[in-house]
Amino acid sequence: MTSSLGCTDPGIPECGALQRVFFTTLIAIVPLLIHLPVYQMGDHIENKGTRPSAIVVGAGAGGVATAARLAASGYKVTVVEKNDFSGGRCSLIHRNGYRFDQGPSLLLLPRFFHETFEDLGTSLDAEGVKLVKCEPNYNVHFHDDTTFKLSTDISIMKGEIERFEGKDGFERYLGFLQESHRHYEVSIIHVLKKNFYSLLSMVRFDFLLHLFELHPFESIYYRASKYFWTERLRRVFTFASMYMGMSPFDAPGTYSLLQYTELAEGIWYPIGGFHKVVESLVNVGERLGVEFRFDSPIRNIQLSDDGKRATGVVFEDNTKEPLTADVVVCNADLAYAYNQLLPSSSFGRSLLKKEASCSSISFYWALDRQFPELSAHNIFLAEDYKESFDSIFKKHLIPDQPSFYVNVPSRVDPSAAPEGCDSIVILVPVGHLEVDSTNSHKGSKHTKGLTQDWDSMVASARETVIKTMEARLNISLGPHIIEETINTPPTWKSSFNLDRGAILGLSHSFFNVLSFRPKTKHRSIEDLYFVGASTHPGTGVPIVLAGAKLVTEQILYDRQQESRIPWRPLGTEETKASPGPLDRTQNGPYLSWLVWILLSIFLVFTTVPGALYYQNQKAGNGLMGDW
After folding, report:
1. So where does this one cross the membrane (predicted)?
2. Which of the listed residues 152, 449, 469, 621 has the most CB atoms within 10 Å of its CB?
């Protein structure tokens, strides 16, 4: 009998309906675009003798990076943060000599980290940020006690894939890698390094030319099924969609770019914790003159008397004077900002109804011994793969048998735990909060009669995680947990003002990205900008760092201050060194000399008889007429 992990049928239903919906929608709205309001850049410019000022609300990765970039461009910048630490979700938890990454723990797309520091006149190395490569990338554990090792080492990948799909499987893997590389390069050039100011921004020839190369209307699971013919490998190469807070059965195929960066560039970890990156950006910002005010929650963003311009912030503490500036950049959760920090609006209310990413139950366990069976990054996949995602994204609950991620920072950074011990983080994806104005569960069409009882769900998740790890690794884990910290959807919401406790902001389905995603500038309030997971270009620390560059340049261009940009602006050509004799591009030999000889002989034997026949016919000899 063929098991569920041995399916060899590559056929998956086509998804062309979404393409028709997209173009029908586009055709309908293009005539309306000419009526969209257009911002006039430079409506008011500071006197040349004055130094422009900016307030950044929130010291998350995006806020800190934007503050440093504005300061490098000559702005007087103040960052106000509700917590007593920087980084937001990208922060640390310390417990009796153990250190845990509260949120992100995998450094992907390293080019955006290097670029951020280089644009600010420094580097990760110069700021004391040491990156170590995690090898293997992951150990993926299945319910049938098999393990798949993901690695940047092509020979390891060849052996792992051929175990399950033979030599043809490895050839198909190379095809998958080629497609995911294309998704990666096109996305960086045409999405992550471009701002989408309106729907017109999508109607660019260079973007539309590459749109279908990104496979935005096919799921990542569907695309993977083109290359991998067993259910096992389809799962191995699609679970990373969880990083976008999406099911692999819904996430656009574009996001296989995540697999590419992992398999080609590797997974990295900053010694000292992921927060080391944000901490270093804070240090760079302070050297550039940025003032950071922690423990300073604000009541609202202050507007001009006519409500058309952002002028500063008002603190919750009435003893603190309001702070004013020429520009306000909000790094708070977008739905929270629109509905709590700004006057009520239909757009703000619509954000509360938009499709959101998932949340998580995260356990931070201090262990009194090490478990070498665990690598730095581990994935435990549910037996009922699709059903587990349906429970999260349709029912907004926790699956009976969830897939989950285990990070062991002490495996690559011994400073994360006392000698001979391990600190481990377990992230169990769960549904986001479903609440009404009274904070009671309102359900959805999938959850009528169900309640989000987080106490029982946490207990269930804890028991399931321990049992699963013990069974698949053949270890005794529970007795060695000596200290525990837990984050749940309600605590994510209260600690970081995350709407519905969604840890990755708004969803990244096609109609929630590009020009459909909330813009980096407020649609009607001047001098108010946004950076973070729910604005363009999207979620994840490297993507938010890209967004910080986009919004900083937008501010400077809007205020006709592009001459202040100290780095090479996006969209300009990079200066390349003059090529030497060995660097000149040359066309390779298309055909070998033997092929040329054979081709010449073929042409002689086909053209000469034809020419003779034509001459004979013309002369009236009727050479062929007797046949």
Report:
1. 593-614
2. 469
In Å, how far from its chain's centre is CA 44?
Answer: 35
pLDDT in tens, 538-558: 999 999 999 999 999 999 999
Contact 432, 489 (CB under 8 A): yes
Contact between 337 and 66 under an 8 Å Cβ cutoff? The reply is no
- Cis peptide bond upstream of 252, omega within 30: no
Maximum Cα–Cα distance for the chain, whole Å? 114
Q: What is the pLDDT of residues 300-333, one digit of tens each?
A: 999 999 999 999 999 999 999 999 999 999 999 9
Q: What angle do CA 269, 272, 278 make, to 5 degrees?
A: 80
Q: What is the pTM of this model?
A: 0.83
Going from the C-alpha of 549 to that of each of 231, 255, 540, 569, the distances in angstroms are 40, 22, 15, 9
Q: Which two tokens stand for residue 57?
A: 């609300």
Closest listed residue to residue 375, CA positions, set 103, 139, 100:
139
Distance CA(273)–CA(276), nearest Å, equals 6
Distance of CA 300 to the CA centre of its chain: 29
Ranges assigned E (strand) in 63-185: 76-80, 92-95, 98-101, 131-134, 138-141, 147-150
Q: Which residues contact 280 (CB under 8 A, 6 or more apart)?
A: 117, 124, 127, 128, 129
Rounded CA-CA distance 230/10 in Å is: 8
